[in-house]
Amino acid sequence: MTDDRIARTHAWEALDSRGRxxxxxxLTLANGVEGRAVVPSGASTGRHEALEQRDGxxxxxxxxxxxxxxxxxxxxxxxxxxRSVADRVGIDAAVEEHxxxxxxGRLGSNAALxxxxxxxxxxxxxxxxxxxxxxxxPRPASIPMPMVNILSGGAHAGRAVDVQDFLAxxxxxxxxxEGIEQVARVRAECARLLDQRGGWSALVADEGGLAAKLDSNxxxxxxxxxxxxxxxxxADEMAIALDIxxxxxxxxxxxxxxxQGERLGVAEWLDLVAGWTERYPIVSxxxxxxEDDWEGSRAATARLPHVQMLGDDHFATNLDRVRRGIDERxxxxxLVKVNQAGSVSRAERVVFEAIGAxxxxxxxxxxxxxxxxxLADLAVGWGARQIKVGSTMRSxxxxxxxxxxxxxxxxxxxxxxxxxxxxxxxxxQG
Length: 430
Fold this sequence. Notes:
Blueprint: E1 6-15, E2 21-29, E3 34-38, H1 66-80, H2 88-99, H3 109-127, E4 145-152, E5 165-169, H4 176-196, E6 210-211, H5 217-230, E7 239-243, E8 250-251, E9 254-257, E10 262-264, H6 266-279, E11 282-286, H7 294-303, E12 308-311, H8 319-328, E13 333-336, H9 338-341, H10 344-356, E14 360-364, H11 374-382, E15 385-390, H12 395-410, H13 424-429
Parallel strand pairs: 4-6, 4-15, 7-11, 11-12, 12-13, 13-14, 14-15
Antiparallel strand pairs: 1-2, 2-3, 4-5, 5-7, 8-9, 9-10
């Protein structure tokens, strides 16, 4: 459509899936088209992420974002109005320049991202085309392999156990549609087994997974493996991924498993994790050591070449950290969270850099997410090949799954499949 310049900017305070305030933004274009986006927020945040602005004080327990909303309406509006949303990279650059800090902390990365997302959505709407098709990357667009939360601990479930997330990956599925149905069966069986083993399946964690209150991390792993078996799947059909979020477990250079009363050196901890990979069909491990333990990350990646070693807090969707990780082989895959970066174009550059270096990419939601579905389109358009948004319930999670189901139903996009996971070629050759 003609005249896709931004005519009006309007931000307001919305609520995320944890009931905490977040920044929402609508950009209205001169042609009448609107782009609307609501910014997500994380619970287990690394210190290298772009910096949100929160109000502090008594309102919402200090979590309010009225200052970030004001920054959009009173400062960024003057920066972006009159610009074409076709130049979303230029809009992001102008916003970054106006903030003037590397981590977007002066006005808040949540304010910057609200503009960036709304501009990206508005551009697609103005072009009357699916959002994913406005994104081009080094790989063709595809429907990503889902990595689905089944059981949760850590910061997502009141530290019921130490490991943050235990996920199912439908590696044998021929399509996304088939894979999601298979994972739903696994979750149902795990809920039944959790009740039998002293847990309570009615307790649901931040991302829709079952709150895994059992005696140990391995007890939860065993339950997931048994749930996969009970659902009728073998290891070549349904695999396991772990998000350890080890930064939250590090104390004085050691890994502290508070739920089990254990304190392990990094070498001992890696021995334990390596043992898990021998006993269970684990294909991906996220943040196996602390975010700044480059030596430990290198050691883990070298020791487990058949496993996808995924960096989240370790990389923080930060291009400089990703480049260092590529040089040092401190991982073989990058988790991509748009709000860690602070803009769509910053996250996009991380995806393209990782793919160009032979690393895999997993586009991820946050624990405090929203009903928006743009994340699914980003994963598809970028050719990221993997996506991680939570479990198969809670509407802020299913919004993304439902968008992918819709896109696959059209029939024009291939499903990424098992080969999307880093480490799988090594496993097959071994």
